[in-house]
Design brief:
The complex is a heterodimer of chains A (442) and B (385). With 442 residues, chain A is an alpha/beta fold. In chain A, 51% of the residues lie in helices and 10% in strands. Chain B has a domain of 148 residues: Rossmann fold, CATH 3.40.50. In chain B, helix 1 crosses helix 9 and helix 14 crosses helix 15. The chains are: A alpha/beta (442), B alpha/beta (385). At the A-B interface, helix 6, strand 4, helix 7, helix 17 and helix 18 of A face helix 5, helix 6, helix 7 and helix 15 of B.
């Protein structure tokens, strides 16, 4: 049974708009069938955003839906459904929540589970996953979902990037990574054409690739306005404002959203209007997906004078000029180069600093640019992708950079049984004391 | 190596109990040893480069005491246990390590391994998850980068001739073990599940020629055993990833059943598929490791219908059940294992559709939980009796 909770307060109007946008996307995918539009289960950072939009496919963002269920504290019944089918509770809870929903809908022969949050998710016509380094669920989850939707075709495309190796310059190998990605993106287009009878509009694709470049730029420009002291927006809001980048990339609406966000943050900076009136501690959310059922913890931090001007999580973009992309006319090559260069962007810096790692260099960049006093990580038990290596990052950060207060919270992204609010708040209180001690020493 | 004539199983017992002892001995004699994880370590390339490959394992009887300070506990317990063993010095004799991209528990801990072990050489082999044509071509590039990396480290070129020789040698090794598997078809099998597990584990730690000689010696020894009268015991197949200890098998066989076959990553998964001899050996190697070895970490989807897809993924299990007259399957999956974990419903459905009952167990890589395991296995065996 879901809990009735008050809406979470946001610092920006932009963040406050997002729940309606998410709901609109869900409504769109529910109505898509009536309108004769194909619906694709999709996952963020797959590289297909421009392709989906250019072919007028309606995306159904299954991860997002799991996040909605978690935020509404109504994911438990879907997790249990998946567990009853022998999906381990230790698997990604975005996936098991989504699978639980699919299983239930399948049992009801296409009808939505009762009181499905925000109307539920439409059964897709196709599923687009990827076998890439982002995470295992991106190819296992679609495969598992197909067990309950046996008439729905699945495409898994590989979109890899070179791993960090001190002894191998990524430039020696990136060309064949890009070549591979382009072929897989082409495979995705062929698959969509085959199963939806939609044809790729290549001119539109080119335009959308340009639009995404501009959107990435605007996103980073907006987020760099958060360097101001006091910060006008923190991670609590960013867990909303990432939605257009993650789930609406390639749309004018996403571009306009970040344009508006830029304007709003500039105004706040001019008035020196921060998230909190008396900003005492500036924190970096160093890694980890948030607990969607406990985003109010960011407000708890705020109540102690702590803000998060910057986060690593869901910041999957960079200023295009910094990526130094090769020039060319092929939109698929541009998409591939953009992702390959993004994921390898911090490699050179890591090589220049003995014993460092790219993830740590990224943290150092944010610590310096955003004048950060401490780092908070979140280790979610069900996600090995983003929550493994945190101990190492913390250790290397201190070793190669400087002593800095660090806290590692433990919990999950969707499974609320992992969470205890009182304990979490006690830990935050203790960390704030650590921050105060460190501040007094400086 | 000690002579194995007539004493194959005795030597197997030694190599099983003191895992890596032969590699350490060879290291003292100047040989180079390369550790690797999972079924996707390209043994032919490692061997052609002049290294003896040793597949890394942990110890299910040993609690994790050092790893947790460096590696998150949400990582697959098998990976954590092997890492714990490494931190305790069990793999101090390694000259290097190859970690293939199989799953997040392995790929996302690569930095943790290399940072903590500080081996002279380490390489992350970026094996794709997808098995289509572009993926195969990409994987050949990945293997090419790996070859260059080894050449740079050793200062020696890895010739096509050496690769071809390694391919032939490993194909012979795989054939030798398949001959031993044949002796499990009788009822009761001539070689027990416990003995077979020890052979598989011992083989993982030896130079390939010694492995082949040892396996052949065991085969000859076992063949000499007289057939025993037919018995009423359940014939069990174990399905899972790196199950590399006899503890689970002992529970099954002490309960009166026989473990007659496996679909595990130190067993049939790696010994059934051979490498086709190709003009460029890398072509055949890529084909085997990406497509022929059937792991949940590689996505295959060429079937038209969903049933075709299931057949493509699990059809080899149908054949095993038929050829080895399997009565029941135990699906033994580690907690926090994403690739196997997501496949459980499909695997169970497929095997049960063949009329073969399945017991699904989600466990740690540890004997500490085997008390409750024994009860469940015994109940399963009673049910299928």
């Amino acid at each position: 049974m879901k809990e009735e909770r008050k809406p979470r307060r946001t610092a920006t109007e932009a963040a406050a708009k997002v729940p309606k946008m998410v709901r609109a996307n869900l409504t769109e995918n529910l109505k898509a069938k009536e309108q004769g539009k194909p619906v694709a289960y999709s996952f963020i950072v797959n590289g297909y955003d421009e392709i989906i939009r250019a072919m007028d496919i309606v995306p159904a963002w299954v991860e997002n839906y799991s996040g909605v269920c978690a935020a509404k504290r109504d994911a438990g019944r879907f997790l249990e459904k998946a567990e009853a089918e022998s999906f381990s509770r230790s698997l990604c809870t975005y996936a098991t929540c989504g699978l639980g929903f699919d299983i239930w809908r399948h049992e009801l022969q296409g009808e939505m589970p009762p009181d499905a949050p925000w109307g539920g998710m439409a059964k897709p016509d196709i599923i687009l996953g990827s076998g890439q380094m982002l995470c295992d669920p991106r190819y296992k989850w679609p495969q598992a979902a197909q067990h309950y939707m046996q008439d729905v075709p699945v495409y898994i495309g590989g979109l890899y990037w070179p791993p960090y190796d001190r002894n191998i310059d990524q430039r020696e190998v990136e060309k064949y990574y890009v070549k591979y990605a382009v072929e897989e993106l082409r495979g995705a287009i062929h698959f969509i054409e085959k199963h939806t009878q939609r044809k790729m509009d290549w001119d539109k694709l080119g335009e959308l690739v340009d639009l995404v470049d501009k959107t990435w730029n605007l996103f980073i420009e907006a987020y760099e306005l958060r360097k101001a002291i006091p910060t006008p927006m923190d991670t609590g809001d960013a867990m909303n404002t990432m939605v257009p980048l993650a789930f609406m990339l390639g749309t004018q609406e996403a571009y306009d959203f970040y344009k508006d966000l830029c304007g709003e943050l500039k105004q706040k900076n001019e008035k020196r209007e921060g998230v909190v009136a008396d900003e005492k501690y500036r924190l970096l959310w160093g890694a980890g997906l948030p607990s969607w059922f406990a985003l109010s913890d960011f407000q708890y931090f705020n109540s102690k004078g702590a803000t998060f001007p910057v986060e690593r999580t869901y910041r999957e973009a960079e200023l295009i000029y910094r990526l130094d992309l090769p020039k060319g006319n092929d939109p698929l090559e541009h998409i591939a180069w953009r992702w390959v260069r993004y994921w390898t962007h911090w490699y050179d810096r890591a090589r220049k600093r003995p014993a460092s790692l790219p993830e740590v260099e990224r943290l150092i960049e944010y610590i310096e640019d955003y004048k950060i006093d401490g780092v908070v990580f979140h280790e979610a038990f069900s996600c090995r992708t983003w929550h493994t290596g945190i101990i190492l990052q913390a250790e290397v950060l201190k070793k190669v950079y400087r002593e800095i207060p660090i806290m590692i919270l433990e919990g999950d992204i969707v499974d609320i049984s992992s969470y205890n609010e009182a304990d979490t708040h006690h830990r935050i209180d203790a960390f704030i004391e650590t921050m105060e001690t460190a501040k007094n020493k400086r | 190596m000690e002579r194995t004539s007539g004493k194959g199983l005795e030597l197997v017992e030694k190599y099983y109990r003191d895992y890596g002892c032969r590699a350490k001995e060879l290291k003292r004699r100047g040989k180079k040893i390369m550790g690797y994880l999972s079924a996707l370590g390209p043994l032919e390339i490692i061997t052609a480069a002049g290294f003896i490959p040793v597949r890394m394992k942990g110890d299910v009887n040993e609690p994790i005491t050092k790893a947790d300070s460096q590696m998150e506990t949400i990582v697959c317990p098998f990976v954590r246990n092997v890492f714990d063993s490494a931190l305790k010095g069990r793999y101090d004799y390694l000259d290097g390590m190859v970690i293939p991209h199989t799953c997040d528990s392995i790929s996302r801990t690569y930095d943790i391994w290399s940072y903590n072990l500080q081996l002279p050489y380490s390489h992350f082999l970026n094996v794709p998850h997808v098995t289509d044509e572009p993926s195969l071509e990409f994987f050949k590039e990945i293997l090419g980068t790996f070859v260059k990396s080894l050449e740079k480290f050793t200062g020696n070129k890895i010739s096509d001739e050496r690769l071809a020789q390694a391919v032939e040698t490993y194909n012979q090794n795989r054939e030798a073990i398949r001959q031993l598997y044949e002796l499990r078809k009788s009822h009761p099998p001539l070689i027990s599940g416990v003995e077979m597990m020890k052979v598989l584990v011992a083989a993982m730690s030896l130079p390939v020629e010694e492995s082949t000689e040892l396996i052949s010696s065991v085969t000859d020894e076992v063949k000499k055993r007289g057939g025993t009268p037919a018995e009423k015991s359940a014939r069990i197949m174990v399905v899972g990833d790196q199950i590399d200890d006899t503890a689970l098998i002992e529970i099954i066989e002490k309960a009166g059943a026989r473990m007659v076959m496996d679909d595990i990553s130190i067993g049939s998964k790696i010994y059934w598929p051979d490498i086709e001899v190709t003009q460029n050996p890398i072509d055949g190697i890529a084909e085997r490791y990406l497509r022929k070895i059937k792991l949940p970490t590689t996505y295959r989807d060429t079937g038209e219908t969903y049933q075709d897809k299931l057949e493509e993924r699990f059809g080899h299990i149908r054949q095993f059940i038929k050829d080895f007259r399997v009565d029941g399957a135990i699906l033994f999956i580690y907690k926090y294992c994403d690739p196997y974990g997501f496949e459980v419903p499909a695997t169970k459905t497929y095997i049960e559709s063949l009329g073969t009952p399945v017991l699904y167990l989600e466990e740690e890589y540890s004997t500490s939980t085997f008390g409750r395991l024994k009860t469940r296995i015994e109940a399963f065996l009673e049910m299928i009796a």
